[in-house]
Every structure is written in C-alpha cells, then in structure tokens.
Amino acid sequence: VRECACFALGQISEHCQPEILSYSSQILPIVFALLDDTTVAVQATSCYVLEMFCERLEPEGVRPLLDPLVRKLAAMLEGTTKRSVQEMAVAALAATAVAAEEEFTPYVAGVAALMTKLMALTDEKMYTLRGRALECMGHMAIAVGRDAFRPYFSSTMQCACEGLTFDSTDLHEFAYAVFANLAKVMGEEFSPVLGELVPHLVTVIGADEGQLEQAEEDEKGQFGALDDSDDEDEGGQYVLHVRTALLEAKKGAITAIGEMAAHTGASFVPYLEETMAVLKKAANNWHPLIKVEVAEALPSMVVPSVAAHHGGEITWEKGDISGQSPMSPHTAAVVSAVLAELIALMKDDDKETAGKACEGIQSVIELCGPHALSPVASDCLENTHALLTKTAPCQRGEEMYGDIPDDDDDHDSFMTSVCDLVGAYGRVMGSHFVQYLPQFLPPVCSFAKSSRPPSDRSMSMGCLGELAQELEGGISEYWQSVFFPAILAGLADADDNVKRNAAFCTGVCCEGLGENIASDYPQLLQAISPLFSVDPTAGDSSAACIDNAAAGVSRMIMASPGNVPMPQVLPVLLKALPLKNDMTENETVYKCLLGLLQMNQPDAIANKAEFRRIFAEAIAEGSKVDDETKEKLKLALPALN
Fold it and tell me: Can you give the pLDDT at residue 242?
C-alpha cells in the first residue's frame, strides 16, 4: 500500500506541475521518511517522487531539506546493491542538484566521488547505472557552474568518450546529453574536444536509422491480403525496419552539436560547413523527433560566426535596412542558409516542428537584425500568417474536420511560438510592420475570444502587448477598433495570466500613444483597479498580475500625469509595492516614483512615509531590485526623511 501511495504521489508530481509544488512542504518530509523504508520498492519509488519534485523546485523550496536529503541519498547509494534503488537514488541526486543550483556546491566533491565509481562500471547489466551517474555529473555542472565543476570536467568527458566505444546506444545517448550540458557550462573551455567529437556526431546524425527490407512470405500472415503499403515494387513486398534506438541517439547527437555551436564561440567556425550539411539532410528526415531537434539546433549555427566576426554581438537598428548590412559576408551566408531551412520547416506537416522553426527564426532575426530578415521577409510573413489562420500544412486536418473543441490549457501550445514570432517582427521591422497589421491583427485577436482556453487568451493579449510596445504610435489607427476593446476584455478576464498581459498592454499603449488616448484614461483606470485586489499569495500568476497592474499604472502616470487622479490612484499603487514576482518591471515602477519626487508632486510628498518604506525594502539585503536602480533609490532616500 505504501508503494502504491508513493507511486501515486510520483505520478501527481510528474503530471500536475506546477500546481503540486505548492504542497512541497507537506509531501517532501513524508517522502523523505520513506527513504528509510525496509521495502526496496518503496525506497525506489520515494526516490522517483523526489526526482519529479526536485526537477522543478526553486532553491528556496529544496533548501530546508538539502543537507539531510543529499546525505540520505548518498548513504542509500552506498548501502544498497539493488540496481533499481541505485538508479533512482542517482536520478534523485541529479534532480536535487538542479533544484539547489549554486547551493549544491558544498556537496559536489562527495557526490562526484560516488559517481566516479559508478562511471567506471563496465558490466553490460550496469550500463544504465553508469549512464545515470554520467547524467548526474552533467546536471551537477549545470547547477554549480563552470568554476565549481572545472576539477571534474576532464574525468567526466573521459568517461563519456569511453562510453562511445561500447556497443550500447543507451550509453551513447547519455554521453551526448552530457556533451550538451558540459558545452553549455564550460563554454570555450570545451573547444579542445571539438576536433574529436564533431566528426563522430556528424557521422551519427548522417546515419540511416531505417531501411526497406524484403519481407518474408510468412511475415505477411493471415492479414497480408489487406496490406496496402506503398513500400513495394514488382519484386514483392517491402517492410520499413526502424532502429528506434538509433533514432534517439541521433536526436541526442543533434542536441549536443547544437549546444557546442551555441557555446564554444569562434572555435566552432571550422566545423560549420560539415555540420550545416548534415543538419540540412536531417531536416528532411521522415521522423518529427529529428526535425524538431534540427529546428532547435539550426539557429545555434549562426552564433559561432557572430562570435568570430562581430565580437559576439551585432549592433542593428529597428527597421533600418538602408545602407550597408552590419553582418559580415560569412555571417550573412550562414544566416541565409539557416533561415532557408527554418522557413522550409515552418511548412512541415508536424506542429511541433513548425513551432520550433518559428522560435528559430525569431532567435536569428533578433540576433542579426532587419538585414537578416529583409531577403526572406515575404516568405516568413506568409508562412506565419498561414499558421495563425490555421491554413498551414500542419493544420490541414483542422480544415477538414473543423476546430476540435478543447479546453485543455496547453491547447495548440505551438501557436505561442507563432505569436512570439509576430512580436519579433515588430521588434525587428519596426514601423515597416505596421502595413501588415490589417492581415495579422484579426487572427491574433481570434485567440482572445471568451470561448478559447485561458492559454490562448493570454497568448493573444501578450502578442498585442508586444506589438504595442514595439510599434508605439504605429498602432494609433487600431487603438479604438482593436487594442482598447481587447484591453478592457482582458482586464475583466477570469484568468490572472490574461489580466497581467492586459495590464502590460495597457501601460505600453499609453506609453506609445501618449496624450492621444488621454480621454480613455478614466475607463482604463476603472478596468485596471480590480487587479490590485487580487490575492498575491494565490500563486505566481496572481502576484505577477498585481505587479503588471502597478507597472501599467506607472506607465500611465509617466505618459500623461495630468490625466491620472493622483489622490485616488497613488495610495493604491504604493500599497502594491515593492513588486513581488515580475522583477522586469522594477525599472518602470521606480522610474515613475523617482520622477514624481523630482517634480515635487504634491501627492507624492504627502505619501513620503510610504515612499520611504518601499525604497528601504527595495535596497535591503536579498532584494531582487537591480544594483543600478538600488543606487538611485539610495540617493533619493535622505530627501524622504
């Protein structure tokens, strides 16, 4: 019964994220006690629960149990000969490291010593345990960072490379995962091994994981006559044999080579040509698993060229395609090749692949600017519009059967990537994108309908906010017909994520349109007011909802202070500060408050005590306010006494 209950907790922990995390203080101590259970199955299952929990916990969530947890898992590992318990304990240690981040540093030496023993296992039955130990080292590296992990880098790489010589695709997969993690952590220090690893990875990615073979007569069986396979010719019946293990290994190799390109800088440039060639081939693979991974790796191919030719950063101006391109000829060539592949993958018949392609295009154009987008803008915009209007190849079935009702919160989650790309067009094209708003706004707004799931409504509102922020006055023609009604509906939505995005949109619209929409301030303030009554303890999205409302009102004040009834508005705003969740809005909020003090605004002076409280909390030890803002607040504090 204990095992079943524990397993149920594990399943809930795995599949009810992130909601389950709020129960961690109740669940973890119970599971922690079960690590001492006399039944092996209960021990193993409790490790599984810990792994599922710790994978997603923040450092503060795991901190109270960190020391006893690591010690107990280590003792379990040393004290048992049961392989299942050992594997689960190693996985739980890896997840604990990821959750604890830098706070795991004191335990690295001890855990590494345990893993080193396991990484030396050569018995075929122990390959998975060896791989888990290798995986744990990779996760520890991610957790504690380059400096703390450096002493273990060489031995971990040696074990991973040795694993490639074994006839075990499982060990190969574990090795590729650790290469990906260590490239990410060690950066250019990973470069010396590129010469050995890249050719191996290129070979794996280029390998054929499936082949047509002539079927045996009896393989057809009694239903052979019903077979309508296309895989046949006059010579008889053919069957596609797929080596799924090689498929997974190929996926891991693509991930690894992508991370190496992304993090080893200019050192990767000599390998770009052969890597691009094999990724182009893999982009036409028959399996979505491979195509998704290729779409994720392709943008990383631009990074080494930017490192080699631009010192790691290209300076570009929003919407400026006049004059010479800031890209070197080498970078422009890589960008052109990468974007061509990603544009083709946008038209893939798999949704996840199309979504990843959108993310890749966004990444490339935001790194390289409008000159990168300009030659392919027409194709990009056309494919993006097709995805938004559900007429793309990956949505053909929906044309035939109509929309399938679905209130699942992650309904068509790939569409978030499509909307993010629309926002990126605004960021990169600037005013040049305004001409396309008549085509793009209606499909974006269609996701905001009340009949859509909350994730879609939030996504739509977020996209409108990004466009308003990037296009500023360019949206003025669409304020009354699109943005204003969408904001009012969003602020009145039942979902906190929709409300927070609507609050953000409110602020950036007021910022961009200024006095032109001052007459709508009373209605906007009335609509945003209820957000300040949301319970911040109800969850992250609730706390963020109040933070975004505070930032939205701050932007309204800065854009048109004369149109905000300060005696009523300012006390409500001050009560909501300092921000609790969305720290990206600190700059906005404190810029507003400091501006009011500099103006000697009467209501600000009347609320000096509240200003003093907020500033004191913002500069206190452990505050998440950035250092530059803290310095400004410290300078302002004496005047508040």
Answer: 60
